[in-house]
Known about the structure:
By secondary structure, this protein is of the alpha+beta class.
Amino acid sequence: xxxxxxxxxxxxxxxxxxxxxxxxxxxxxxxxxxxxxxxxxxxxxxxxxxxxxxxxxxxxxxxxxxxxxxxxxxxxxxxxxxxxxxxxxxxxxxxxxxxxxxxxxxxxxxxxxxxxxxxxxxxxxxxxxxxxxxxx
Length: 136
């Protein structure tokens, strides 16, 4: 099971950090904890955002395609990811082998506030989706 910062792990009945409208236990928790795989590219994108938000770097690494995964990844505990807006998706469904998700993710780091706007590419191998890369 991927590790997350216990202090940042939401209760199952609380709103999911990805802001899908579902509770954490029905949305990203089963993915981040390894109970099941993401069925679509956009759900993988949402669960990866949640992993960043709760400090689950093991999950971020596990869902990064081996061909583009960095040698190491350390999440900055001073950065708090608090909002995800999915702007557009292209393919990435349960029967696709590739998909694209455009999103904006918002963060705070001390007094600084910022956003990351990316168009991410995903690939599915077997039954598992992976983050491949993204264009800022």
